[in-house]
Amino acid sequence: MTLLSSLRRHFDAGSYERGERYQRQGRVSALQADRLPDGTMRLAATVQGSQWIPYVQSVLLRVNANAVTMLDGECDCPVGINCKHVAAVAIAWASRPAEAGTASPKPAPAAPALSAPISDLLERLGEAAARDGGDSYPDTVRKRLLYVLRMEEGPNGREAAVCPLSVSLRKDDRFGSDDKPYATGWNQGQIPAKFVTPSDRAILQFMAQQLSHPSHPEKGRALRGEWAAGLVERMLRTGRLYWEDFRANPPLRPGPDRAGTARWTGDDKGRQRFDVGLDTPSAVVLPTVPLLYVDVESWECGSLTTEVAPHLAAALLGAPPLPPAEVAAFRNAAAVRFGARLPVLPEPPARTEARRVRPRPVLRLRCGRTPYSPFGYGGSMMAVPIPVGVLEFDYAGTRLAGKTTAPLQWMEDGTLVTAERIPADETKAAARLNGTGLIRNETPLSVAGGPPVRRELFVVPGDAFEESAGWLTVCHSVLPALRGEGWIVEIDPDFPYQLAEAPGNWSFEIGDGSGIDWFGLSLGVDVGRERVDLLPVLRSVIAALDAIDADAVSPDDAFFDIHDDFRDGNGASEEPRGLDAALDALAPDGILFVPVAGNRFLPLEAERLRPLLGVLMELFGLQTGDGAVRIGRTHLGDLAALEEAAEAAGVPLLGADAVRRMARTLREAGGVPAVSPPAGLRATLRPYQQAGLDWLQFLGAHEFGGILADDMGLGKTVQALAHLLAEKEAGRLDRPCLLVAPTSVLGNWRMEAKRFAPELRTLVLHGPQRKAAQGTLGDHDLVVTSYALLPRDRAILAAQPWHLAIFDEAQYLKNPTSQATKATHGLDARQRLCLSGTPVENNLDELWSLFSVAVPSLFGDRTGFRRQFRTPIEKHGDAERQRILARRVRPFLLRRTKEEVAGELPPKTEIRESVEPQAAQRDLYETIRLAMDQRVREEIARKGMARSHITILDALLKLRQACCDPRLVRLESARKRVAKGAASAKLDRLLEMLPDLLADGRRILLFSQFTSMLDLIKPELETLGIPFVELTGETRDRETPVRRFQAREVPLFLISLKAGGTGLNLTAADTVIHYDPWWNPAVEDQATDRAHRIGQDKPVFVYKLVTAGTVEERMLELQERKRRLGEAVYDQAATEADLLTAADIDFLLAPIDG
């Protein structure tokens, strides 16, 4: 690369080519080159352009490796920076032999040389063409820099201003909508945007140096001083100067010089302003030096001359008008001072007259603005609107501000009329405003863009709430009174508190909504000629009442209380005690102002609204996302309550007569009709269980869902199975039913279905055969799956229509954002039932989540539920909200505690909890089983059954340990499985049960044969924070743990079967859990009798945890056939007939799925 070739990148193509031509024509002279201390080269030269006087250049450049790496040149031509003249200087320097490093090459044959006059002519023609057509851009540059010229109000009068704008050029060559002010500051080291031409750079740099910086860039920079006209001329040359609107108007073009006539013009107030008249009325005069005009018809801009000296003419054009009283004095002083330079002077009025005019007070409600910086000193400024009342006075049609004292003057038929102010009347008007609660403003504010003022402005004192309430009261009560006293009252459109007329006709209207399930509700009022629905806007009122209502009760009170099967529906709510005080606080004058549209407010009579507040508060929990209120079939009780409240408020309830009759029928229902138990049910239902079946059948008949929330152990499973069987026997089970439960209880559901409802075709969708079974869902009555699999099989389960979906242990769905909960919403089921002994453990959000699954239409969205129920109840102890919530859920939530139904329970209830082993645990079990099976058979083959007793017992022991917890098995293979994540499904199930049982107030005895298993359980209890005592063979002080448990100091007693199976009296317990079944039922019974004995005054529940499909389950099944089996295994004196047979061994050691 040579010096010459490296110069091109520092210039645009046109400037470099013209500079090259200038250099060849010998136009560069007086070229000097100096090297500065830092190695930078400084060039100075002159270049002969198209004018008589040559242009002067100063260039700084840096050279590295025979290439110019930096070049910054200035010229006093109009372009100014890196122009063609600078290019000519740089090319001339680089062409010198000393700089190029070689002898100057011989010039190539050139075209015949042009004479200097012809060269100058061509140069002038080029510049003229540029002025006519503006700058040219490559096709790839789609942005433009425009200059917009307009007249603005300056501090002393009107002045011209220009605003540079950047804007995109669309494909159709029209301007885009992305225009924005372009910065006029310029850094010499800054790389310009591609759409900024050299001429633009010169203009922007000049504006930054000569014109003041604007406070509002969108208004542009004021064109003042002797430079203004020249700057406008430069902008004209670009072809991108516009008058006011660059989209509507064409660009301005240079126009001819014109002559104007100086004159003074007057207005109806006698004020006179200097003006210049032109023959063309469409011309606007710019106060520059010299004067310029803009013709808005021909879109020309040019110079304007007049008989007044140009500087005087520009100053007078930008000056404010002369008041009539000052005209004569100005005329005399100007004639003496300026003489012939100002030959045209204003004429004073020919006649004067004094009059007495009484002022009429004017109150204008407007918005004042004060500059406020959120970022402190030097931060960006924004105007904060403040509602104000502006006090003015109308003197014969002329408005005067309160602070001015000058007399009023106006012209009338050539006569200057003067009226003196009447301060006493004005003072009286200000005092009248002070008496309304308004006070004088002490902060300077700008109104309508004017200068800051203070004393003539009135404001409402207080915080934002008090300000809003105060202004609305002023508009409602004060303004009508002032109008009656003769005041002029005006309200600007942007004033934030516009009052609509009080509505006349109110009515609740029930629409069809979306069919038979949902019905729209509105509270219509007439506002002028418009019908407005008040329910969406009353939402903010209800929210304000919530904030004010401090009526509270203890949050420990129960939020639901179900004792009857189905009470009198959802009756009308009693008036909330705290709402009266809250309403009085919001409407102390008996008028409540609600926003209806924009800044309009509607005054409502508080007494008419009062009876509706309770039921409206409840209904706002049913809002949709767009703020509309709707009532579903599940809210018919709310509709009945609304009808009563509307009647009390004198507001008619219109529409949907059939729906309203249904609501009254539901409210007046006598209870759930009884049904017969299904014939195929292999169980006798207790009375409370029969009531539960009646309730489930009633909900199903109306396709309602619900939550069965009975205490643990009261038979939720058998009630659900009875409901399923009743549906099948009635012929309604034309679709399968889905049951979702924790993985640990899938086996229990399989066993209970087989036990109580064997006619149900049951499929457990779990394990290795799950994928293959997915295609047979429709062939079964009951499909059982787990919460873990529900999200994975979401698509398959959602595609299958279900008659009924049951969610056991529904506390798994208490997190509404969990994948399992989300998957339930996609299921197509006629009825949805949740089974949970603890529907609320931590907060009411859990109840909302369960009902979003079981009865999705019962509540609104989660945010509305929190506002309506959770926050008032949990944080404020709101008893009224508790009552409303209980009434809302009562038809769909059935809960019986063991205390309520104690009279129906037997002294002892045994419950088998079948637990499905996890995959890793299942694999470990099978590994041990295969090894033990081979070992036992080899031992029996060698010694016979009678002498293989120890080997058989050891095999069964290891299998039982694998069922309890893989960590109990003392085998290397077991340790490896544990290291890889093999865990105990039975332990997981125990840890699920204990918190629920303890939450119900149960006192529990937990038995295990293995003290090592108790050692594994203890740290888990400590993690859960469950206190316990322990009794094993190593316990020396047996009295203390027994005393503490009996004294109810701890709720859980861990006992090894051998240490505590006999000799203890633990009647404080009402629940017994056998973690691992004992082979001898009598031993288990003895342990159970520690609680179930004389002195026990409560029913006892006995839970037996059994690992499904394993030796535990097979042994219990075998016990039913051979009652003495357990004794035979452990009794050394048993006869040969009591011992296990070969068939028994095959049965006990069969594969887990065998």
Automatic annotation (TrEMBL):
Organism: Azospirillum doebereinerae
Classification via CDD domains: DEXQc_arch_SWI2_SNF2 (cd18012), SF2_C_SNF (cd18793)
Annotated Helicase ATP-binding domain residues: 697-857
Transmembrane helix recorded as keyword: no
GO terms for MF: ATP binding; helicase activity; hydrolase activity; zinc ion binding
Gene3D superfamilies: P-loop containing nucleotide triphosphate hydrolases, Tandem AAA-ATPase domain
Protein's UniProt name: Helicase SNF2
Highest taxon of the lineage: Bacteria
Record-linked Pfam families: Helicase_C, SNF2-rel_dom, SWIM
Keywords recorded for this protein, A-Z: ATP-binding, Helicase, Hydrolase, Metal-binding, Nucleotide-binding, Zinc, Zinc-finger
Record-annotated SWIM-type domain positions: 59-94
Positions of the Helicase C-terminal domain: 986-1140
